[in-house]
Amino acid sequence: MRNALYNFFARRSPNRSNISVKRTFLDAAGKETKVAADAKKYVYDIMLTKLVHKMSMATSQVLRAKGKATITVELPDKVQLSSPPFGGHYTIECTDPGSPLKSNSGRLSAYSSATDIERSLYKCAKLRDKLRVYHRSGVYSDRTVGANYMVEFTGMSEKPPALKIVPDKDSPLTGNNI
């Protein structure tokens, strides 16, 4: 069943997303059980791993081979809509230790590369050639879900400057846990 669902969502759906499927067995009383033989009802929770702006599906057609199983499909508007996709713009504000001066990086996009972020941080005093920014792969399955960058300070004998992400006024960052 998972393969059929995957083929639909990953290959034929307009959203083109991988899926996560959780199967739960329920006994005659409606309580969760770990033993498949005791199950009177199987519940499949299907979640897209890519965030989308709209419902992932609006209709469903249920085809069944032989048997008397009752199949119910709850559409996303009844269950849950997606979280807002990661997006928008920002700058990075740097405060030089021992100085009230602040400098801003150039405007960055939620989809900026590690190289773009590193180059923009060169505008911060004392940081040029003393930092490395890299993308931590494997943390997020899709860039619409999020990005994870590591800023590593190298060759500094003093405390590094404080860095603060400042959302853009015209196009602020969107998503969860920003």
Question: Can you characterise this structure?
Answer:
By secondary structure, the protein is an alpha+beta fold. It has two domains: 78 residues, no CATH class; 79 residues, no CATH class. The chain is built from three helices and nine strands. Strands 4, 5, 6 and 9 form a four-stranded antiparallel sheet that branches. A three-stranded antiparallel sheet has the order 2-1-3. It has a two-stranded antiparallel ribbon with strand order 7-8. Strand 1 and strand 2 form a beta hairpin. The radius of gyration is 24 Å and the shape is elongated.
Short description:
By secondary structure, the protein is of the alpha+beta class. The chain has helices at 2-12, 76-79, 114-121, and strands at 19-26, 32-33, 41-48, 89-95, 102-104, 108-109, 131-135, 149-153, 162-167. It has two domains: 2-79, no CATH class; 89-167, no CATH class.
What is the typical, i.e. mean, pLDDT?
75
Structural class: alpha+beta
Strand content: 25-35%
Strand segment tally: 9
Uncertain segments: none
- What is the gyration radius calculated from CA atoms? 24 Å
Q: How many domains make up the coordinates?
A: 2
SSE succession: HEEEHEEEHEEE
Put simply, the count of helices is 3
Largest sheet: 4 strands, antiparallel
For the terminal residues, how far apart are their CA atoms? Answer: 36 Å
Q: Globular, elongated, flat, extended or rod-shaped: what is the shape?
A: elongated
Fraction of residues in helices?
10-25%
